[in-house]
């Protein structure tokens, strides 16, 4: 008798989102297993960021359901703040609080949302800063850090509450090219550590190296989904082939 399949960390069923009369998501179905890294690709306006915002309940959906584990988090009776406390999110812009030092930024949610005593929160926070190579910056304010350092702090902040799911939305798009690598190296380390990640990115070479599964979106629909080798080397759909052909970034 075969073992029962584990409940996915995330399950998106038939999700529709409109802004006014304009449909942005047109029936999205997606499952993400524990420790899986799913990378969303597609042109600007394809729905990647909106999908991530619906998963984190920053945008209300017009149809469909989203499950985090066994819980339907799109049920209107659900406490959205409690759901968001289970999900770590990092956006394009670091969104660090400029009046707080790095350690306070990293530990804020643990202290304020989860009620963890400051000494314990700071012990965990310093461990995360050590992990990302910035423990010596713990008492610095964000404006004293480079963009890459600020984005790494934002990732550490998202990890400080040990989230079930990590959402990364174009986290390198606001960085100078020379800083992109250090942030992507950290994501690679998170994958190696078993984090469950859904990531939207324009970095195709990185998607190829780090993803367990690549999902191509166009006009609010999932056109094709599969292992990176399939998507990048032998895509099944003509739309996917056309999108990749327009990209000039080498995959090697």
UniProtKB/TrEMBL annotation:
| Name of the protein this chain belongs to | Amino acid ABC transporter ATP-binding protein
Where's it mainly located? membrane
Keywords, A to Z, come to: Amino-acid transport, ATP-binding, Cell membrane, Membrane, Nucleotide-binding, Transport
Matches recorded under InterPro entries: AAA+_ATPase, ABC_ATPase_HisP-typ, ABC_transporter-like_ATP-bd, ABC_transporter-like_CS, MetN_ABC_transporter-like, P-loop_NTPase
Q: Which family does it belong to?
A: Belongs to the ABC transporter superfamily.
Kindly give the membrane topology term recorded for this protein: Peripheral membrane protein
Where found, per UniProt?
A: Cell membrane
Where the record annotates domain ABC transporter, the positions are: 10-244
**GO molecular function annotations of the record:** ATP binding
Enumerate the PROSITE patterns for this protein.
ABC_TRANSPORTER_1, ABC_TRANSPORTER_2
Source species, domain of life:
Bacteria
Q: Does the keyword Transport apply?
A: yes
Protein's UniProt keywords contain ATP-binding: yes
């Amino acid at each position: 008798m075969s073992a029962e399949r584990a409940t996915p960390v995330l399950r998106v069923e038939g999700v529709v989102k409109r802004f006014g009369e304009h449909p942005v998501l047109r029936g999205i179905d997606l499952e993400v297993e524990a420790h899986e890294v799913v990378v969303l690709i597609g042109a600007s306006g394809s729905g990647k960021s909106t999908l991530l915002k619906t998963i984190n309940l920053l945008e209300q959906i017009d149809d469909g359901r989203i499950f985090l584990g066994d819980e339907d988090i799109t049920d209107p009776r659900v406490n959205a703040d409690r759901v968001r406390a289970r999900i770590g999110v990092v956006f394009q812009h670091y969104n660090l609080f400029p009046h707080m030092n790095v350690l306070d930024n990293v530990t804020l949610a643990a202290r304020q949302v989860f009620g963890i005593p400051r000494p314990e929160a700071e012990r965990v926070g310093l461990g995360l800063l050590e992990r990302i190579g910035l423990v010596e910056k713990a008492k610095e304010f964000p404006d004293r850090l480079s963009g890459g350092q600020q984005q790494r702090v934002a990732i550490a902040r998202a990890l400080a509450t040990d989230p079930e799911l990590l959402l990364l939305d174009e986290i390198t798009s606001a960085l100078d090219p020379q800083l992109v690598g250090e942030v992507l190296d950290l994501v690679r380390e998170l994958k190696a550590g078993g984090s469950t990640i859904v990531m939207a990115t324009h970095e195709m070479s990185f998607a190829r190296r780090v993803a367990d599964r690549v999902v191509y979106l166009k006009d609010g629909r999932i056109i094709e989904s599969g292992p990176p080798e399939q998507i990048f080397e032998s895509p099944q759909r003509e739309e996917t082939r056309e999108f990749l052909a327009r990209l000039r970034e080498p995959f090697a």
